[in-house]
């Protein structure tokens, strides 16, 4: 294991502690990590033009992982796995509510509403593959 | 072995596009995988299905074998083409693909593992009569006195190398007997830390070698052919920048002997797929350094001189089809040169990611551009900086050089710095025009003026 192998964990720990600079030595190797301020991208030769502003009244809810999309079934504020249908569209949801799941082998990861609103669309097909951070639901804000 | 219907392309950039094209040609369904930084990649428009596998960090996307296999299961892929780089030479990944009941486009995990161990690879090569550098023929003994005796008998200068290594780590050149102990100890420490294997071996160190390699194709039924040689001596810090076929000034008969030895080695070990035997060449002698068990960046110069589509051949072999070629069917014609166009500053080779505002590829007879670039594409900072390969083919080397100069002049890219101006200057140097420069050639030059450095060794 080299210092470089530990880099992802070091960077994560630095972010948690709000550290900007760190130097470590291990035998002949020295590693100095300097982090840009949060939200700063790596230097690029030129910035891309800004994307067109999205519909501010709608939030897309991404899948947290790559797997099989399970839509869930929103009934009176409760969602259960394995009950597919378009019933979710039009359902009123609250921040923190589970809208659906992504299935990875035996595990089901919840797809959680980031804010209150009404489910405007289900953007993935139930039982179909869904990509990492691919949009799963659209929520219209109240 | 099951028939191949769907190929997952476990790579990005120009090679992913190259593989997607070959799949189209063969009527195979293809799946593109990409990281969050790569949603705009060109091949994703050409594949039949695409899926985002993870965040921008390669360790959680293209280098994450479990994610690649999950994507294959989700999309119904029955074969995986690893391209080059990333997981293409990981024996552990190859074994995981085999366990999952899928086909890896490449040799078996066992062969990858053997070729990944430099000592085992060299032993295998000697068995098949492939020329190797005189060396310790195994790991140096732990007993330093015994190691010293062995190395003194080999003579100096020699190089101490990590058995499981590459990329210059765990490597020390030793010029005199008194410096051996320190070199071995440092190399062992570095090798242990970098590769988890502290074994090192020693072999003769060549002063001014050229890098010459042989491309092979071998099928499951025990047929193998060699497709000519390439010279990849123009390198900077072990990274190739220019490749050409055939190598200048080496008698075709010598290359043919070497090619025949490589074919023998393929048959002896039961090699399957495309592969490259890499050699150092000095004073008329070839010495094996390693075998790459995958497609190589520079494969197009061989395709241009032989007319054989190496990626299509790889896919056919993986599907269990016979080569359908004998050595007598293979002839090389003319001369091909490839320049790697990297998104890097052309003097210091510092990465230059960013937005490509305009892209005008060159064209015309004998000009090929393998690239995923398009205007509006943003080169991400996370990955290898290769953005295009400019390949030319001419009736002879002078013709190829003229075409390369014209193509480099015609090519225009705005928004990012690339290595194209470096290549344009290189094409004008007398040494490169004459041909046959060694692997240390660029180190000896002041890259601004392309004249010998005053402090050159």
UniProtKB/TrEMBL annotation, chain A:
Gene3D superfamilies in the cross-refs: 2.40.50.100
InterPro entries for the chain: Single_hybrid_motif
Region (Disordered): 37-59
Listed name of the protein: Acetyl-CoA carboxylase biotin carboxyl carrier protein
Lineage of source species: Bacteria, Pseudomonadati, Pseudomonadota, Alphaproteobacteria, Acetobacterales
Automatic annotation (TrEMBL), chain B:
SUPFAM superfamilies for this protein: Glutathione synthetase ATP-binding domain-like, PreATP-grasp domain, Rudiment single hybrid motif
EC numbers: 6.3.4.14
Protein keywords: ATP-binding, Biotin, Fatty acid biosynthesis, Fatty acid metabolism, Ligase, Lipid biosynthesis, Lipid metabolism, Magnesium, Metal-binding, Nucleotide-binding
Organism of derivation: Nguyenibacter vanlangensis
Pathway(s) annotated for this protein in UniProt: Lipid metabolism; malonyl-CoA biosynthesis; malonyl-CoA from acetyl-CoA: step 1/1
GO molecular function: biotin carboxylase activity
Enzymatic reactions: N(6)-biotinyl-L-lysyl-[protein] + hydrogencarbonate + ATP = N(6)-carboxybiotinyl-L-lysyl-[protein] + ADP + phosphate + H(+)
Class of the enzyme per the UniProt entry, highest EC level: ligase
Complex formation: Acetyl-CoA carboxylase is a heterohexamer of biotin carboxyl carrier protein, biotin carboxylase and the two subunits of carboxyl transferase in a 2:2 complex.
InterPro entries: ACC_Biotin_Carboxylase, Acetyl_CoA_COase_biotin_COase, ATP-grasp, BC-like_N, Biotin_carboxylation_dom, Biotin_COase_C, CPAse_ATP-bd, PreATP-grasp_dom_sf
Coiled coil ranges: none
Described function: This protein is a component of the acetyl coenzyme A carboxylase complex; first, biotin carboxylase catalyzes the carboxylation of the carrier protein and then the transcarboxylase transfers the carboxyl group to form malonyl-CoA.
Designated name of the protein: Biotin carboxylase
Domain Biotin carboxylation: 3-447
Domain ATP-grasp per the UniProt entry, residue ranges: 122-319
